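Most newcomers find our protein records easier to grasp once they have seen one. Sequence and backbone structure share a record, each on its own labelled line. To make this concrete, we reproduce a full record directly below:
***
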Amino acid sequence: MAVTEITKPFLLLSTRPEDDAAEAEYRSFVSMMELQPEFLIQKRVDREPLGPIILDDYSGIIVGGGPYNATEPDKTDHQVRVEACLNTVIRECIERDFPLFGACFGVGVIGSVAGGVIDRHFGEKPGCILVDVTTEGLADPILDGMPSRFPTIVGHKEATRALPPGATLLVRGDVCPVQMYRIKRHIFVTQFHPELELDSFRDRLEVYREAGYYEPEEFDSIMDSCSGQDLSTDNRLLLNFARIYAG
């Protein structure tokens, strides 16, 4: 089925306050999901409250990444508001097992709502790593057509120490063991960034050069570490999500 055969759009909930980063994230998801722009609606939760979200108006919900951390000890009023908006949607998605895909920051907000343990024990500096698909992952349609080991991009201060009750581990890593999991049947969370390729990763690094994820002088070595890696493999996750839930 072509992803263009779609009757309802997907909804991207963005939390990046930087306009360039938010716009680039939107373009990445549109590209990797092979959607026409009108079938991915972006709502900038960082700018204004969401208001009521009617899930049945959408094929699925996506929670993008961002500079926030769910484990931040001193959250600003702005972050508290953003998380409250996201949590309302996430709770309903979990209750209904409504299609939901969360990347990076999604680990913190979705995992917390679902009862997982999120802390800073398994943080990873930005860079390319190899991850392994579990037996359960190999049997899940969301990973259809993907190899059992693939390169991907990470960069996070917090991570999942313990899965939410009943969640299924789909992809594991060495430094950060929980790289992707499923809640119920239709809710997916990745620690890595399946929406990024080399050029978009470079742009993302530039935006967050002073955000404490890495030392600014490490920029070139981080990019060198990704040289020669096929970073298009994990894009398949988003295409599969679009194809499975379109319409």
The first helix runs from residue 19 to 33. The CA atoms of residues 198 and 228 lie 10 Å apart. The radius of gyration is 17 Å.
